[in-house]
Amino acid sequence: MSQAYASVGWNRQKKLYDLVMLASVSVYLALFVGIGAIVHPNATVETLLIRGFGTGALLMLHVILSIGPLCRLAPRLLPLLYNRRHFGVAMFLMALAHGAFSLVQFHALGDLNPLVSVLVSNTRYDSLSNFPFQPLGLIALLILFLMAATSHDFWLANLTAPVWKRLHMLVYVAYGLIVAHVVLGVLQAETNRLLVMILGTGMVVVLGLHLIAGWRERKLDGTADLPISANGFVDVCGVEDIEANCAKVVTLTGERVAVFKYDGKVSALSNVCQHQNGPLGEGRIIDGCVTCPWHGYQYLPDSGASPPPFAEKVPTFNVKVVNGRVLIDPKPNAPGTRIEPAKI
Amino acid sequence: MPNNHEFYVGYLPKAPSGIAALAKRSVIGLVLLTMAVALVLVFGQQRFAVSFFEFGKVQEFQGVVREWPIPLLISGSTGMALVAEGKHGASSLVAGLEGHSVKLSGTLIHRDGSEMIEVIEGSVQFLGKADREVSTIEDLGTHSLAGEIVDSKCYLGVMNPGHTKPHRECASLCIRGGIPPMFVVRDKSNRRVNLWLLSEKGEPVNQQVLDFVSEPLEITGQVSRISDQLYFRAAPATYKRLP
Ligand code: HEM
Ligand code: FES
Is the omega angle on the peptide bond into residue B181 within 30 degrees of 0, that is, cis? Predict the structure, then answer.
């Protein structure tokens, strides 16, 4: 089992993922620049490249941002999430190419340092329609850089998951900045309504998916606020409500708990994967281990600890089965504490 | 196992068949979407101006220099504006050559019949003093004109598009570096007319117009013509921003 766990490095699925992604990016650039050059013979190559890289990066960002909520709504799409980090890094590289070409094209060979020029060459900070849109792109690019640079698990471990997660939430700030960059930039000059519509559609999809997924989750949390009985245990469900080798997710005093049924036993542990906060309760028991649906990190169901040599640990909960009902003590035990599973 | 019990673990060599099929379909959908977006964006862009920068094609030019206020090379009855490489004006390249015949090498930039030369530094050769006066000034009166201040080098062909809001920073930087600012207006038959923008006294105004480039303006001033070049003299303090 730990053999499989150990191989969260390169593997066939990741190679496939990256191959398909890079092929799609190439097709996009080839179409945009190739057909663009035929349709617009007077456009300079620089313009076509700047626009190809910029729009390509923004399209990728839309897909990246949509994958998360899509997988919450339809877990069978999880293969799309599996190597999303490389997708993110590739998107950053596209944005970097766009930004670098723009810096050279519009800001080099002048009397100012190009980075200074980005900030000061347009002075109309007092106007909306004339507002300097390029500094917005520069800030977004810096955020994307920070995220790409810290995307490796090394940083996840060193920054700790909550800090890393917060840092990576900045992607939404970057998204907002880029939308403003486009609306206050090129859309002030291009008059075709199709361009506004295509960006608007993208925003509606990203926002809509997040709202729907968030609403579903709130509903889930809301219904599960169960009463605590006298002895401190909460009756969360019947044994038969849990499918074998699967879990039911319940919310106890604000925290999500994954209650697993396997081998005629029941164990409860935190729903939050130590890797990237994936929902363990949507995972499966595979080879005797709780397996995270996102990237397959594994935990022993009774102790919440990853099998050696791995060191990840999640909190566990005391559990009882009485008359076919599953009872859980909402007080979490320290991560990695072994709790005797309840026999059915 | 029934289909919705399939569970994907990325590091296992093979995904369950149902999930693999769905992933394949999603990817095909995404690729088609990508192609559709690329095509919509290609065809959704505005037509590009018919302007040219003959990059890589260096030619030799001969004519009489006008040094002030806009560096020009006059050849017959046509004037070609002179600029230097990058975002720099050519004043220093033709300093002291007012009214002299020269030979120089450079790259042609042109749009709608307006021509400009990007002069290669060090290529200007003094040929002799011109025997005739090159400039007679024709006063065309006072006009209020609506238009946009552009940097002439990008607008005439070095960049495409080379004007409007997305190009504002670049235009400002070019004008700051000595590229002559040009006021582009439309005449009654909707054709573009380019005027060299000068101060009230007819001097270069580069540093005073940086806040006004690439946005709709109304400028009231004095229009004049010297050979085939139009000049527009106005005080920057009187420029009016249009909504
Ligand atoms: C150093 C940072 C950046 C600079 C200097 C910059 C500059 C520019 C410029 C000058 C344009 C207008 C180009 C034109 O006339 O078509 C533009 C457009 C655009 N930018 Fe950026 N940008 C930067 C960062 C970004 C980032 C991080 C993104 C993220 C995806 C982005 C996405 C776009 C898009 C989608 C467009 C519209 C397509 C286009 O006109 O190229 N930009 N940017
Ligand atoms: S979040 Fe990555 S394996 Fe759980």
Answer: no
